[in-house]
Write a structure and sequence with these properties.
- The structure is a homotetramer.
- By secondary structure, the first copy, chain A, is of the alpha/beta class.
- Chain A folds into two domains: 2-138 and 279-322, Rossmann fold, CATH 3.40.50; 141-275, Rossmann fold (3-Layer(aba) Sandwich), CATH 3.40.50.
- The first copy, chain A, is 41% helix and 18% strand.
- Chain A has twelve helices and eleven strands.
- The first copy, chain A, has helices at 15-29, 41-46, 81-91, 103-114, 139-157, 175-184, 198-211, 239-244, 248-261, 281-299, 319-322, 331-339, and strands at residues 2-7, 33-37, 49-52, 96-101, 119-123, 162-168, 188-190, 215-221, 264-269, 305-310, 313-318.
- In chain A, strand 4 (96-101), helix 4 and strand 5 (119-123) form a beta-alpha-beta unit.
- At the A-C interface, helix 5, helix 8, helix 9 and strand 9 of A face helix 5, helix 8, helix 9 and strand 9 of C.
Chain lengths: 341, 341, 341, 341
Amino acid sequence: MRVGLLTGGGDVPGLNAAIRAVVKRGEGEHGHSIIGFRNGWKGVVDGDVMPLTRRDIRNVLPTGGTLLGTARYHPHASDGGLDAALATLEAERIEALICIGGDGTLNAASKVAAAGVKVVGIPKTIDNDVWGTDASIGFDTAVSIATEAIDRIHTTAESHNRVMIVEVMGRHAGWIAVTSGIAGGAELVLAPEEPFDIGRIERFLKHRHRAHASFSIVVVAEGAVPAEGTPMHYETQVGKFGEIVAGAIGERLKVEIEQRTGFDTRVTVLGHTQRGGIPTAADRILASRFGVAAIDAVTAGTSNVMTAIQGEQVVLLPLDEVAGKVKFVPQDLLTVARALA
Amino acid sequence: MRVGLLTGGGDVPGLNAAIRAVVKRGEGEHGHSIIGFRNGWKGVVDGDVMPLTRRDIRNVLPTGGTLLGTARYHPHASDGGLDAALATLEAERIEALICIGGDGTLNAASKVAAAGVKVVGIPKTIDNDVWGTDASIGFDTAVSIATEAIDRIHTTAESHNRVMIVEVMGRHAGWIAVTSGIAGGAELVLAPEEPFDIGRIERFLKHRHRAHASFSIVVVAEGAVPAEGTPMHYETQVGKFGEIVAGAIGERLKVEIEQRTGFDTRVTVLGHTQRGGIPTAADRILASRFGVAAIDAVTAGTSNVMTAIQGEQVVLLPLDEVAGKVKFVPQDLLTVARALA
Amino acid sequence: MRVGLLTGGGDVPGLNAAIRAVVKRGEGEHGHSIIGFRNGWKGVVDGDVMPLTRRDIRNVLPTGGTLLGTARYHPHASDGGLDAALATLEAERIEALICIGGDGTLNAASKVAAAGVKVVGIPKTIDNDVWGTDASIGFDTAVSIATEAIDRIHTTAESHNRVMIVEVMGRHAGWIAVTSGIAGGAELVLAPEEPFDIGRIERFLKHRHRAHASFSIVVVAEGAVPAEGTPMHYETQVGKFGEIVAGAIGERLKVEIEQRTGFDTRVTVLGHTQRGGIPTAADRILASRFGVAAIDAVTAGTSNVMTAIQGEQVVLLPLDEVAGKVKFVPQDLLTVARALA
Amino acid sequence: MRVGLLTGGGDVPGLNAAIRAVVKRGEGEHGHSIIGFRNGWKGVVDGDVMPLTRRDIRNVLPTGGTLLGTARYHPHASDGGLDAALATLEAERIEALICIGGDGTLNAASKVAAAGVKVVGIPKTIDNDVWGTDASIGFDTAVSIATEAIDRIHTTAESHNRVMIVEVMGRHAGWIAVTSGIAGGAELVLAPEEPFDIGRIERFLKHRHRAHASFSIVVVAEGAVPAEGTPMHYETQVGKFGEIVAGAIGERLKVEIEQRTGFDTRVTVLGHTQRGGIPTAADRILASRFGVAAIDAVTAGTSNVMTAIQGEQVVLLPLDEVAGKVKFVPQDLLTVARALA
């Protein structure tokens, strides 16, 4: 059986562990040929193939990045993209396609499945917002990196009267912010799930520092936003800048907090360090289990599903049930974050 | 409300995060007094108390060990132990007791509950064999430490014709061995769940090295045993030694493999490094959630239950349902370990 | 003998290891009393003392921060500050003072020494720019943190056509930028020692990406500056912002590079993560050796000196020879950074 | 110019960083061809060559192991080995040879140099016992791994009355034991430099535990030996075992201490984890500087020298001055280890 494989969207640690599992299990147990496509869907559209054998996956288990390359490209988004993709799959005689990616990639997967191609998805995103699975590949590593950063800042913050802002990833959901905030013991966590009131933040910090504390750590997700009717007066100061830098929200908060409280405020922008480096053991185990489950599903003729972890079980969910939905941080976790601040 | 708190059994990273959560939430939200007992059940029997306030838990979140101390002691195991424990709890006017520990500690907890004391348990063990919960405090950290060790050995093993044995913890269940074996890419994983056939190991290693490989990594749980009727001929050589060292199985395997295959074989015994150091983010989050759930349960008057994580939810399980059972590594995980070897 | 001890300036990992060494050796071998001053020179001026015994230094060896607290305050900079400091030292009957700090703290130390107080300095700064010593406490840890960040970004950068900027500390000297750039394999390192020509950077990046590369990593020290007559045209865009944020140079470079090359450019600002967390083994060893050398020097009646590491030897240098000088990155190291880009 | 390159002896982290530096600088700046030999001197004798270009060294900077492979083989040790090596070098028209290795490899290098071949050595050994250089490639990483292990054991040891033995590498010199003992805060360090008196160890532990301590950590180098006339009575118990396991000294000490003190004693054998994994920033920088210095020396026509780091300078030392000597741990460092126990 000829099985296609691609990794789409942004890099996350653990992709190579999943690729390795698909190849080892697919070639070793099932005798399939695994045909990789370079740079996600782009490689499918361009017919950029890279056959994978066990030799190609030696020593990749603990490595970050993806040996197949990736790209933020969706076939159905460009004219004729979908047709070109289908043409390649036919030309390469691909009998089933395994797509490792986030919301965008999985969306494209269900589109391709709708066109009659057998497709199995594997969820990966450090944002952990793929619906239906307890965890996606890359999330555990990102949280551990963010937590380590908060730990480091803790030791320095203690000896000064200061506000330390740590900006982490999370556009639509605040999983990294909330969990690393709990793990690192942040005083304040700002997530997209709960638009923040800058006035209350000001009062909280002033009260806390007046009371006793010599410092406060604020973890903010890149997608955090002010609540309606709670203007950030000073953001105009960095207006233009607001559009042009990634670190926008962290910098904007800094200006706002300094102007309102007079506390020396510092910003750390973790940026792409959250997407890189050695995957944690948990991410490698998850990726390995997903890879095995995906190739086994393909072998069993299953299609249009996504692997998911639910409790201790790896299960298969219909892609259409999953695609387009966002898994937000549940209330009880937000409560824990608040309770332990 | 006066709430007692103890940590029993062996150390694991994350205990302080759980203690911190109980104190912060209990004192801050519920206005309880948290009375710690030193060295697990021993402190209850001896009346060795340590009242805990928020000051005591500053900066403990990322630390290993337990600020309350611990001991492998069970009140019902010694004459009058249980009565002494109950007497202390009454003298200290403890209205509910939170017990953080493994099988032994939780067992004692249900005994004390049977005597009419309100008790809530929190599972911790790097062995991850507490029944009913996806994970126990300490497991994730232990796996990450074992995996890091396997990663390191990988880079050295490659350039020599060698067998590298890594002995990890796991007396009754092979969770650390199996998961770190998957995460680290071990060639062979020996767990208590599947008694091993030394003859098959010999044939596997000889074939593998004859074929191509320059090395093999064997991860063995301390509780792994040979299958019936598959004698380890050379273990007599280290007979006496067998009783006297912790690293028994690793050393015995080394002798056996060297004698049978002639391959240079090295052993790494991780020992207590698996129980120590900084808890991973995942362990801190789990411990924090358990701590909050336990004190909330106590406040709600719930008793004789254990906190457990099932998927994304923290739930409460009857202690009697859990106590005395062992959670073994499921087949599908053993299959993944084999498939990716 | 009553020996005073203070830590001044910014936090660095390893301060507690030095404090521990002074106390253990001073109390244990020499029978001195060690009198700590809180928050650096401020504590001397305010008479804020904290006697230190072996109990106080338990378990501090691997911790970041400083148990004495620190502050960026110099007695000679404020009216009567120096007199107040001398008054406290006399009131506390301090026979000698050990000052752990960077340029500013050591400067103040020589001022106090000039007033007749016996003083021994210990150099600490992640910038590594203290003259006369191969290394200062904190530098090795900061470099390892910056290098780890570059490693992580490497794995993500590979799969995209991108410029990744990593801003590290280093106001006057580029030690962190140059060494982490070498260790991490950066394509470009911008240090204060060599003002950069933005036009050449533009040409270098365009040529490199046209040629073959899919990405470039640029490490920039916070103190890096454009060379005379090589205007950064677009910085006006972030003009005001330029004054108000710490991450100025990184953000300014980003804007400049994106405007000139059109390459997607991302910035990571490590900020205070470089000053925190667990000290590396090398920093703990250096701090321990400095602490022992300092208390031994004090005991021997030596004064007005600073401990320094030169090769494998810890030596004592006259404070006046050291104070006010800056140790820049030597040419040969800059050459290695360029050669391996 | 055709320059040969080999890595000999045991693996250490940082070898790939040195190889990368030689290739990048040699090819890029000097236009040389770099001819690698596989598996150290064995590859030279067998004519097993591997031409190296910049493509071959992509992404190897942070990796452990050696892409050239290595072997513990010395040409002059086997009949005709030296002649065969010289024949290969002539056949391959090698104009100069860079040898990265420890004492054995550098010894062979000076033999080959004596036969008229231009040779430059680069010192690597986690034992750090190469004479004339402050540090050798691999040492810093090994110390950091051993220190991390001691840190972890610290947190677990605290809550029990126990002796924890950590066996580290170091056959002839105790560099890893002494430095990681200082960095980790061990109570006792046993190094080859100072044969130990088991009776004094017994008295020290008994007194310490009687006095106050709940635990003691003993770091022992694999090459540590009992002093003359201080028999270890119980080692007979593990006599035979003594020959057959690597971890001999650790296990022997355990038995001895348990029998003499009755304290529960545990052993951790770090083994090859000390030789593997990601090189620290310091090791990568050292390796990069050595690689550049070696290829520059070769280009300048220098021969029969070894690169060495002395303070902040990389210098060249005559191979004959270095070969065969052992650099022991100096007294002042042993004193610091004792003083801070």
